[in-house]
Write a structure and sequence with these properties.
- This protein is mainly α.
- It has a single domain, classed as Up-down Bundle (Four Helix Bundle (Hemerythrin (Met), subunit A)).
- 74% of the residues lie in helices and 2% in strands.
- The two termini are 18 Å apart.
Length: 162
């Protein structure tokens, strides 16, 4: 299974997936970064700056996910690994299209920032979907308790390097 191999690779990387002490301070800080990215996305979209709106959209989603992972005590500094562990942990509670949208957002950001590709997107749709995604993640954060956190952390144990 490709995603399991990716997770195993991520667990072996020095900046890959690590289980650490959950941090409410990081949860709050990354939620604020997500909200700031949402504002930036809207300002850039309304100014017609597509590449910056697309980039801010991705970061709004990414920081929301990172906030969720911080609530669990999962640290990861590699974007692909962050997305992979998010998908692994929440594929049963997140719609498949939402996870695909996060991956697509990352690819659009990379294309716009590094390859100077013109991104053909409906900015109003990007704004709507980004707000929906981040709101869903915030709801997930609010629903976590010690029991659900422990269950999700335990889900990572079989992937740990032997």
């Amino acid at each position: 299974m490709q995603s399991k191999r990716r997770l195993e690779w991520c667990l072996k990387q020095s900046k890959g997936i690590r289980v650490v002490k959950p941090s409410e301070n990081l949860v709050k800080a990354y939620l604020q970064k997500s909200r700031n990215a949402l504002k930036s996305m809207e300002v850039n979209a309304h100014a017609g700056l597509v590449e910056w709106a697309v980039s801010a959209s991705y970061y709004a989603k990414y920081f929301a996910v990172y906030s969720l992972l911080s609530k669990l005590g999962v640290k990861c500094e590699i974007h692909d690994c962050t997305i992979a562990v998010f998908e692994y942990l929440f594929s049963d509670s997140m719609p498949t299209e939402s996870i695909k949208e996060l991956r697509d957002s990352k690819e659009n950001r990379v294309e716009a920032q590094y390859y100077m590709q013109e991104i053909n997107v409906d900015l109003e749709d990007v704004i709507k979907k980004t707000k929906q995604f981040t709101l869903e993640i915030e709801k997930m954060i609010d629903c976590l308790n010690n029991e659900s956190i422990a269950k999700l952390q335990k889900k990572l144990q079989p992937l740990a390097p032997k």
